[in-house]
Design goal:
Aspartate Aminotransferase, domain 2, 7-stranded mixed β-sheet, 39% helix, alpha/beta, Aspartate Aminotransferase, domain 1, 389 residues, 2 domains, 3-stranded antiparallel β-sheet, 13 strands
């Protein structure tokens, strides 16, 4: 029995992050401030976007984007069933109705052909998810949004480094939403970002993310706020806002993470390619992408049991791996399996058959930059052993 546990996810945090966060704590200014703004500037430059607005999660980014793209009560938003609950929750929280379009069984991304089938007079937006870091078919999706005059919001939680036709994802729609959760390719422990190229949307989100205040705390109270001013300027509340802001402690970690994002991506790609090579002979499927015009972020490596070739099942594989001290995850069960959505929206096993199959048969294997090759080899040996038992 292996003694050391191989975790499923592991943030790539080093001394630089620890030292910078410590510096921010010692400064006594730990809320939203100049470090958060610097992180926004550098993230905007990396993504080649006009505007970047930090928030406390990708969920917050999605919620704000939907609101300020004009989504209202009783509108319909088409999205994918192969996603985390936050995508669906964000739509519901605006008062709109999520409508599911099934996935392409090869890419696991939303199928553009299925999107068009679900469009009605109530459809106001499409919310796509670049699943596992693989960009959606943006050419086809953009044709649909143009044809029906729909808003487009990109859930880029898995896709910080992803590109389509050499253009960063997040820049194709009206807003792009990113996650910096602890398992993501870039982490701030908790956090997120909205990128967009629309000044009006960016201004609305900037104010609404912090209670609708015209000035945030550091601009009201630091010495710079009163320099060269003849009278004190009071803040106002100009929007119905939320408490969705990022703070300097998180942003400090993000700045360091951003600086090593590309080197980490290269390591993730190497691990992804090794998995694919070593497991290709097994009765499994993996995410298939042959389009040379895309750049995958390599956020997840998924193993999908091929039920046409084996009687083995996913849950037994997970138990086998965990008994051998190997962490693994399910990304994701289809949202049509979740009890609250079944109850409120009437979804069932037949709603999206491709997504149901994937959700019932997928396992995500460990994938992070400092995963040792000897550990990867051990994982592959155990997966191979499972299918031989």
């Amino acid at each position: 029995m292996r003694k050391n546990y191989i975790p499923f996810g592991k943030p790539n945090i080093g001394n630089q992050e620890i030292q910078f966060v410590s510096k921010i704590i010692r400064s006594k200014w730990i809320g939203s401030g100049p470090i958060t703004e610097e992180f926004e500037r550098k993230f905007k430059k990396y993504k080649k976007s006009k505007y970047a607005l930090s928030v406390n999660s990708c969920t917050a980014a999605l919620h704000l984007s939907l609101i300020y793209c004009g989504i209202r009560y009783n509108d319909e938003v088409i999205t994918t069933p192969m996603t985390f609950a936050s995508t669906i929750n964000s739509i519901i929280l605006t008062g709109a109705k999520p409508v599911l379009a099934d996935i392409d069984p090869n890419t696991f991304n939303i199928d553009p052909g299925e999107i068009e089938k679900k469009i009605t007079k109530k459809t106001k937006a499409i919310l796509i998810v670049h699943f596992a870091g693989l960009p959606c078919d943006m050419e086809k999706i953009l044709k649909i949004t143009k044809k029906y005059k729909l808003k487009l919001i990109e859930d880029c939680a898995h896709a910080i480094e992803s590109k389509y036709n050499n253009r960063h994802v997040g820049n194709f729609g009206d807003a792009g939403c990113f996650s910096f959760y602890s398992t993501k390719n870039l982490t701030t422990a908790e956090g997120g970002m909205v990128v967009c190229n629309n000044k009006k949307i960016s201004q609305k989100i900037r104010v609404a993310r912090l209670h609708g205040l015209s000035k945030d705390a550091w601009k009201r109270y630091l010495p710079e706020s009163v320099k060269n001013k003849k009278k004190f300027e009071h803040y106002d509340v100009t929007e119905i806002g939320m408490k969705y802001n990022m703070i300097d402690i998180n942003a400090a970690m993000g700045l360091i993470q951003l600086g090593k994002l590309e080197s980490s991506w290269k390591k993730r790609k190497k691990i992804f390619d090794l998995y694919k090579k070593k497991l290709s002979h097994l009765p499994i499927k993996t995410q298939n992408f042959t389009n040379k015009n895309i750049r995958h972020a390599y956020h997840l490596f998924l193993v999908i049991i091929d039920k046409n070739k084996t009687k083995k099942n996913r849950d037994d594989l997970m138990l086998f791996l965990k008994k051998n001290n190997i962490g693994c995850g399910v990304n994701y069960r289809t949202v049509t399996d979740m009890s609250i959505f079944k109850k409120k929206l009437g979804w069932n096993d037949k709603t999206c058959k491709n997504s149901k199959y994937l959700g019932d048969n997928t396992v995500s294997l460990p994938l992070y930059p400092d995963l040792k090759i000897k550990d990867l080899n051990f994982i592959c040996e155990k997966v191979q052993q499972f299918f031989k038992i």
